[in-house]
Specification:
Layout: E1 2-7, E2 12-19, E3 23-31, H1 43-65, E4 74-80, H2 84-101, E5 105-109, H3 110-121, E6 128-133, E7 138-145, E8 148-154, H4 160-170, H5 177-185, H6 208-220, H7 223-256, E9 260-264, H8 271-284, E10 287-289, H9 300-312
Helix pairs in contact: 1-2, 3-9, 4-5, 4-6, 4-7, 5-7, 7-8
Cofactor: Fe(2+)
GO biological process, one term: tRNA threonylcarbamoyladenosine modification
Enzyme class: transferase
Length: 331
Amino acid sequence: MITLGIESSCDETSCGILSDGDNVLSNVILTQEIHSEFGGVVPEIASREHNKFIYEIVEKALNNAKVRMDDIDLIGITNGPGLIGALMVGIAFAKGLAMNYKKPVIAVNHIEGHILANFIVSNIKLPAVVMMVSGGHTELILMKDFGRYHVLGRTIDDAAGEAFDKVARILGLGYPGGPKIEKLAEKGDENYLKLPIAIRKELNFSFSGIKTAVMYHYRELSENDRELHRADIAASIQKTIADNLLYKVEKAVGTSKPESLILSGGVAANSYIRNKFEKFSSEIGVDFYAPPLKLCTDNGIMVAKAAYENYIRGTATYNLNPVPNLKLIEV
């Protein structure tokens, strides 16, 4: 069975083609670099860029996979969460393909796609505690089985990736902030700035206070001290975000007793955070999984995987309306 997945929820236009649920035939990703000029994603520009390149990306994915649309058995398309205009571009294109080639097309939850990216390359024992962390989402999830999820906690304000972006903007590093913070942090003292773990009694997250604390601290520094301590601040914010995530993960693991711990989403590409999670998992004797770096970012192959798994299990969603605030269905 060959599945084609299309992703267009934010600023990546991507198409992935998957055979039999685990054989990656192609995965083409175009990141819209134009947003770096504005310090963040501009929704209207994102929609226009998707519309401009989506045909080219899908065609390239088909060529790389050495298949034609006639060979495709199933189409998966992200219908949320994400930017409504960006979602609409992808959905309209997927509908067009489905109608023209008479193929079934099903909706995919972007968050589930990130989770299932891990299962393309690994045989993971369940249940698993999943830390899904990206620019737009920070969710702590108990995955009981495919399609069976329970959200243990989520951010009540900024996502972790969003906090990286906002602190990077304060430090004058540009967008996207996560990779720039990580690189600068290599030269800094992670204990320079002490920042607290928010909401200790619950499994929800809060990162807006971290950004505010950094902003006020940075304002008080002289120009010389800003230059002197920029790397220290980057290292401190990276450590604080990692500690916040792990604090809640440790609590969740203690109560859920999972077989595995999964890190997913764009922030999973951060090597400092990956190493912290791997060390923690080793200490408690739980298997740890994080996707290959190319599957951390938004991509079409994760959409294809989620579409495939839902289709063969009879849990597919055929409502293709865009849902910008779509939640993971809890079962």
